Amino acid sequence: MLNFNKLCWVDHNETETTKDVNNRIELHLINKDDLISKVIHNGQCNEQIKCYHNKYRTADGSCNNLINSRWGKSFECVNRLQRPVYADGKGSPKVAKSGKRLPSARLISNVQHSSNYSASKFTHMLMQWGQFLDHDITSTAMSTLKHVFDCCFQSSHECYPIEIPKDDQFFSQFKSRCMSFIRSAPCSTCNKHREQINALTAFIDASNVYGSTDNETRTMRINDETGMLCSQRNGLLLPPPPNENDNDCSTRNHRIRFFAAGDVRVNVLPSLSALHTLFMRHHNSLCFHLKQINPHWDEETLFQEARRIVGAQLQLITFKEFLPLVLGNEYMDKFSLKLLQSGRTTYNNSLNPTLISEFSTAAFRFGHTLINGEFHRIKSNGESQRYLLRDNFFNPNPLHFGDIDNIIRGMIGTPSQRFNPSVAEDVRNYLFKRRHEKFGLDLIAVNIQRGRDHGIPGYTVFVNLCFGINITSFDDLETLMTRNSAKKYSSIYESVDDIDLYSGILSEQSLPDAILR
């Protein structure tokens, strides 16, 4: 197996040493069991699913826990660490502590998160694995608006557009004052407040390869005696999307250049499409070799055993090689996240794996600051070709032209951006830009707005929850971030308690041996 740890380190020395923030502040982390006990479980009105003995995981994540069969299932309500702070107490987007409107999410992006590129000691593969992993465990279901195509020009109670400042340094040249934003779909709960839906299984189970429902999994399979996944070009590329009411791989329209995979976001970046392709090929290779070893196995056994191996490998890469780089050894030890050298853990049927809203809405989006606006395709002879992210959203052409190996070498051979408040302009001004367009969306503004949409409490609430630190003024922030960052917040927000969780996380200084604090 590839050593992901080696793929994520750039072969050069750090140009700037990380400050030892442990000397600046004594951390008072609550322990793992206390944190778990604080999770707010949403009372869902659905009955438990009847489970049957099965050697393999279900596609939708149900029946992983035989007592609580819906825990971790796709299309279920998320849980929370803190109760939401909706403006009306029920579901209206969050407002400031004073009751006034919060500052524009785009304004915060401009002041606190404008680009100032600095290379990290990690390669772009680290960022890309984070996105690939994210697409295995979280996808917030969106509201469907009939007859509403742009929330800037049409009104709906599910619209929550982002105001663009009149003097915006980028968008003002296009006379754009509004960014369309649709609220996340509400989940049916027994609670009295609005909650959101995770459309994926909450487990690291390779649902981004196989799908998070039975139907999605069926559309990915060839359904012959091989147990393999659908593909094209003699197994080299992912398949095109399925035809309506027809899942047969052989009848799909191969003139469509977009790809189909277990997660619908497969086409967002060429580098993401490349990882999806890699694991499709890996599954099919496993099926081929398993059949040689076990010629008596039928199609279902081959498929499920290969799926089982791929899911385990995703878990192994994540816990052995990805998380130690992100969290550092201290946190890996403190929260018992390191893999055992021998033996095994026992199943804890009281541990709810359901996705936590603050994690998916804010914390796990930390990786957006690692995105480098410049990607590279590196040939086997070392020749490198640069391409800009802003020009390659939803662009599958490089894969059709045989560039998958070059794209993967490029991720391994070029650095990501350093974790800091600065975010690449390619996602801050050009997110999802089409080729004929001059601008796109602002990912940071969208993330901030999403937190308000979900009623996520302010940054200071979680500093107190996780570190035991009571922040009462903007000056107090200097224990967690630079003085410059704290000063910028004081110029934007009315109260320190209004700072949005996502923005605050990006502004923290890293621990010495980790990306995050």
What's a quick, concise take on this entry?
The protein is mainly alpha-helical and 517 residues long. It has one domain: Haem peroxidase domain superfamily, animal type (Myeloperoxidase, subunit C, Orthogonal Bundle). The chain has helices at 4-7, 32-37, 105-113, 124-137, 207-210, 214-220, 270-293, 299-334, 357-361, 397-400, 404-413, 425-428, 443-453, 459-467, 483-492, 501-507, and strands at residues 76-77, 119-123, 162-163, 178-179, 197-198, 374-378, 384-388, 415-417.
Note down, in words, how this protein is organized.
The protein has 517 residues and is mainly alpha-helical. It has a single domain, classed as Myeloperoxidase, subunit C (Orthogonal Bundle). Helix content is 32%, strand content 5%. It is built from 16 helices and eight strands. It has helices at residues 4-7, 32-37, 105-113, 124-137, 207-210, 214-220, 270-293, 299-334, 357-361, 397-400, 404-413, 425-428, 443-453, 459-467, 483-492, 501-507; strands at residues 76-77, 119-123, 162-163, 178-179, 197-198, 374-378, 384-388, 415-417. The strands form four sheets. A two-stranded antiparallel sheet has the order 1-5. Strands 2-8 form a two-stranded antiparallel sheet. Helix 3 runs antiparallel to helix 15 and helix 4 (124-137) crosses helix 7. The longest helix has 36 residues, at 299-334. 41% of the residues are buried. Residues 11-38 have low confidence and may be disordered.
Which class of secondary structure composition applies to the elements? Answer: mainly alpha
Structural domain count: 1
Coarse morphology: globular
Gyration radius, in Å: 23 Å
Question: What is the H/E string?
Answer: HHEHEHEEEHHHHHEEHHEHHHHH
Could you describe the largest sheet, including whether it forms a barrel? 2 strands, antiparallel
CATH superfamily: Haem peroxidase domain superfamily, animal type
Tally the helices: what do you get?
Answer: 16
> What is the CATH fold-level name?
Myeloperoxidase, subunit C
CATH architecture: Orthogonal Bundle
Ranges where pLDDT stays below 50 over 5 or more residues in a row are 11-38
Strand fraction equals: 5-15%
Measured between the Cα atoms of the first and last residue, the distance is 30 Å
| Rounded mean pLDDT score | 90
Helix content: 25-40%
Q: Count the strands?
A: 8
